[in-house]
Design goal:
Layout lengths: L21 H16 L3 E3 L1 E3 L2 E3 L4 E6 L2 E10 L3 H18 L4 H17 L1 H12 L3 H25 L11 E9 L2 E5 L7 H12 L3 E4 L6 H13 L7 E3 L4 H10 L3 E7 L2 H12 L10 E5 L4 E5 L5 H13 L9 E7 L3 H13 L19 H17 L1 E4 L3 E2 L5 E2 L2 E4 L6 H4 L6 E7 L2 H8 L4 E2 L1 E5 L3 H10 L4 E4 L16 E2 L17 E9 L1
Parallel strand pairs: 1-5, 7-8, 7-10, 8-9, 10-11, 12-13, 12-20, 13-18, 17-18, 20-21
Antiparallel strand pairs: 2-3, 4-5, 6-23, 14-17, 15-16, 19-22
Helix pairs in contact: 1-4, 2-8, 3-5, 4-5, 5-6, 10-11
The structure holds NADPH dihydro-nicotinamide-adenine-dinucleotide phosphate (NDP).
NADPH dihydro-nicotinamide-adenine-dinucleotide phosphate binds next to α8 and α9.
């Protein structure tokens, strides 16, 4: 376990497991069996270090087999949400005085324990949110990366920050925490985003209430248990699962909440932003909102692209984790000169995608997360069939789990609904562009601006895209998904969020404020 902070190694991303190695595969099978053995376990709220069971429960089900209950968490009432905020406010008084080194050491300890339990966390994501083995491992690896990266970032921020010297004064500027934060993550990177958002807030000296997504509350409960195990002081992270529509507004509008760290849909993000802007009686600050929201991400395939590489990039970006990544490719904008070739090859590539239970490693796509996602994606497919030409997919697979075929809809108008609205499922719209200029215009025609990718062999097009492709994360000749902590600080423009960059050197600043101190000498 890492204890000596002054000799800490430079940050390095975790290596993703190779499940073709029989030893790794065997460990994963054993972990899946072990997590199954824990099905139906109950997880309490944790407020001020106290475990509280409530009568009302949130059931987290296996989307591949909804009869299976992965676990149940207690469900916080409004009163309990208030108690959690009060507990966080009390804990803040001492936590804010701990050293950055001490706070960082908790993150490093947490990273080390998750590393030791990697297969179990992987298996939980397979069963709780329907990730395939590599997708689950990518999520857990990213969670470890966030803990390691933000720990080191806090140590960096704790160094002196040079200010311009003035005769007769001793001047300094220090970063101090904000206060009590509400951490509201989504289910799609159920480990990485949940842990990353929580870790960033607390390592900066804040205390939080963590309201997990109702679809992935068990992995959050495991993390909260682990924080207890490493001795994180009580009240620093208070765990209050509960329906967003029941306790969300109360948390966001509470006068003791200083900031909200949210990742999720545009609709909920905008609602939170609006509510947080209104000062409440007794509130002494303007709340800070860090909101990471939806996307409608495009891959442009120029006439001079390597078409095979582009087909591969679109297929994995569109259908990895069933298209349920904010960075997923949901529009391929293809130059008309290679349009037919691209489409033929994409159809052939997609036909090779196996859909089924993600506990079986031969499947590339698992289920979508829940029944309402299945319904809403299916409705979009019906809209898409009218707005374009169904090339492949479009159907539900089986009757039990929430499985859908990978779906390609071609000849879609740039203004069509399936070209403009976030579907968040395995559906990609193919749009024909007259030329590169046209493709660039189409790529920028949504209200979002999260990720984008361009396949081309032309340096001029790369130069133009660097200037004009208005997305927070731009890629060339590679997929639009798979951002790595530290290497690709992540976050989008416009309705994709508040322009923050998770896993980047500016991120911790969002959870701190600078204090300038001057002394006459
Ligand atoms: P939602 O917006 O449905 O939910 C996100 C979180 O908000 C959940 O914890 C949810 O709780 C909570 N919530 C719901 N209503 C309220 C409310 N009124 N007040 C406070 N909290 C509330 O998003 P999903 O979980 O479905 O996640 C998918 C979305 O996240 C997609 O749009 C995707 O693009 C986006 N996303 C963006 C990323 C980025 O970096 N830009 C990264 C990952 C995802 P509950 O579950 O109880 O409803």
């Amino acid at each position: 376990m890492t204890t000596t902070l002054d000799r800490i190694a430079p940050f390095k991303n975790e290596v993703i497991k190779n499940f073709t190695d029989p030893a790794d595969a065997a460990q994963m099978q054993a972990a899946i069996a072990a997590v199954r053995n824990r099905f139906n376990e109950h997880y309490p709220l944790v407020i001020d270090g106290q475990k509280i069971e409530t009568e009302k429960k949130i059931r987290s089900i296996n989307p591949a087999n909804p009869d299976e209950v992965v676990g149940l968490t207690s469900s916080a009432s409004k009163e309990q949400a208030q108690e959690a905020i009060a507990a966080a406010a009390r804990a803040f008084e001492s936590w804010k005085k701990t050293t950055p080194q001490e706070r960082a050491s908790y993150l490093f300890k947490a990273a080390e324990l998750i590393r030791q339990r990697r297969y179990h966390y992987d298996a939980l994501l397979v069963l709780e949110v329907g990730k395939t083995w590599p997708e689950a491992d990518g999520d857990v690896a990213e969670a470890i990366d966030f803990l390691e990266y933000y720990g080191r970032e806090m140590l960096r921020y704790a160094q002196p920050h040079p200010v311009v010297p003035i005769d007769g004064e001793q001047n300094e500027m220090v970063y101090i925490p904000l206060g009590v934060g509400a951490v509201i993550p989504p289910w799609n990177f159920a480990a990485a985003i949940m842990m990353g958002m929580t870790a960033a807030a607390i390592v900066a000296g804040n205390t939080v209430v963590l309201k997990p997504s109702s679809d992935s509350a068990i992995v959050a409960a495991w993390f909260v248990d682990l924080l207890h195990e490493i001795g994180l002081p009580k009240g620093v992270v208070n765990f209050i699962p509960g329906s967003g529509s029941v306790i969300g507004d109360l948390i966001v509008s509470h006068p003791q909440i200083r900031f909200i760290s949210f990742t999720g849909s545009k609709e909920v993000g905008l609602h939170i932003n609006e509510l947080a802007a209104k000062p409440q009686p007794g509130q002494k600050w303007i709340k800070r909102v860090v909101a990471e929201m939806g996307g409608k991400d495009s891959i442009i395939v120029a006439a001079d692209a390597d078409v095979d590489a582009a087909v591969e990039g679109v297929a994995v970006s569109a259908f990895g984790f069933q298209g349920q990544k904010c960075s997923a490719c949901s529009r391929a904008i293809v130059d008309e000169k290679i349009y037919d070739e691209f489409l033929d090859k994409l159809k052939t590539r997609v036909a090779k995608i196996a859909v089924g239970d993600p506990t079986d490693p031969k499947n590339y796509m698992g289920p979508v997360v829940n029944e309402s996602a299945l319904k809403s994606i299916s409705e979009y497919i019906e809209v898409g069939k009218k707005e374009g030409r169904l090339v492949t997919g479009g159907n539900r697979v089986g009757e039990k789990g929430f499985f859908l075929e990978p779906t390609v809809i071609a000849d879609v108008d740039p203004q069509a609904r399936i070209s403009q609205e976030e579907i968040f499922g395995p559906v990609v719209a193919i749009i024909k562009a007259k030329d590169f200029n046209d493709a660039m215009e189409i790529a920028n025609n949504t209200e979002f601006g999260l990720t984008g990718s361009l396949y081309t062999s032309d340096e001029q097009k790369i130069k133009r895209a660097k200037e004009d492709f208005f997305v927070g994360n731009l890629y060339f000749n590679r997929k639009s998904t798979g951002a790595m902590v530290g290497a690709h600080p992540f976050g989008g423009f416009n309705m994709s969020g508040t322009d923050s960059k998770a896993g980047g050197p500016d991120y911790l600043l969002l959870f701190m404020q600078a204090k300038s101190i001057s002394r006459k000498v």
